[in-house]
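Same chain as my last thread, 257 residues:
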Amino acid sequence: MNRRYRKTVIAGNWKMNMTASETKKFAEEMKKIMPRAKWCDTLICVPSCNLSAAVKAFKDLRISVGAENVYFEEKGAYTGEISADMLKDLGVKYVICGHSERRQYFGETDQTVNRKVHAVLGAGMSPIICVGESLEQRESGITEDWITLQVKSALFGVSADRVRRCIIAYEPIWAIGTGKTATAAQAGEVCSAIRATIRALYGARVARSVTIQYGGSMNPKNARELLSQPDIDGGLIGGASLKPDQFVEIINAANQD
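reply #2:
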């Protein structure tokens, strides 16, 4: 982490878990143990049906609310989709764009991710842009090339002032939900490559201002070591964000001096 130039952000991603009533219960438990997050911003991305409940439940907890997905069109005959303006109106501040599960199961491409990034930024919110490689790609030695392509594609046409509002989340696909985790050195190396890509596109001043998260099975046991890497500025947390005690431990790790 480098707090001199950029924010540290711990974000939960609940995926398809928790009902609205369970969200309220989660918030009640968090109120008892939530630390005073001196150095990091905290947010939780919840299922769309829980957004209103989460905004209400988390308002006194210093926890912002994010969405797990968005559609790139402003309005129209797109049954079942939710626009950026709809999310903004609910009080959402962050939106995950291009999570590997969306790419794998729902056919999202680099091009649709780019359109979602523009929609989120246009509505005044911050996108959390997910990038990551498969185990086959890592073993083939193309991790950096693959990640660079994803970053460039996601940021295509995004101005320098808007890039500062973006968060890049590096999530090696082989470590999501598997219990496997990249070593701190491996994660730090890829996050450094992401920052180098942003530097090549926008210059050093912009690059050093962008928050880059690690999101491959970060948990209370490995969070401190991962966050000690200079180019890892937070985490996109899956399973551990569903358990208040574990989520708080990771927040505490992000508050290390």
